[in-house]
Design brief:
It contains 4 helices and 8 strands; from the N terminus they run E-E-E-E-H-H-E-H-E-H-E-E. With 123 residues, it is an alpha+beta fold. It starts with a strand and ends in a 5-residue tail after the last strand.
């Protein structure tokens, strides 16, 4: 059964613990970016490489493509192998500030990635 939702509290080092049942899904790596709204996107590396990178290519004169590149590449963070094996993802402070996340996080699957939302903003 697929996990589509989880809640966590960040530790003192701003680390999010990915549930054990999801770790295999993120075995290829983790990419964190700003979302379309005041939330973050948490992608498995293979999904980022296959789906997002291809969507971000296009004509250098296409303003829509340029806007998407700015949106998703600004603050993009790839997570190292050691953190992945332990199931912890460190979220940089500027990304937490952007999403208004203090300590409590709600993660909801949105297709092949997760949205990370401040618990107080989750509806």
């Amino acid at each position: 059964m697929q996990t589509d939702y989880f809640e966590r509290k960040l530790d003192d080092k701003r680390r999010l613990t990915i549930p054990a049942e999801l770790r295999a899904e993120f075995a290829s790596g983790v990419v964190l970016t700003r979302g379309f709204g005041k939330y973050l996107h948490l992608y498995p590396q293979q999904i980022w490489d296959r789906e997002v990178e291809s969507a971000l290519t296009g004509s250098i004169l296409d303003e829509r493509v340029a806007d998407l590149n700015v949106k998703f590449r600004r603050g993009k963070n790839r997570i190292g192998a050691r953190s992945k094996k332990q199931g912890r993802v460190t979220i940089e402070q500027h990304l937490l500030d952007y999403a208004g996340i203090d300590r409590e996080v709600v993660a909801v699957r949105a297709g092949e990635y997760f949205r990370l939302i401040a618990a107080e903003n989750a509806e």
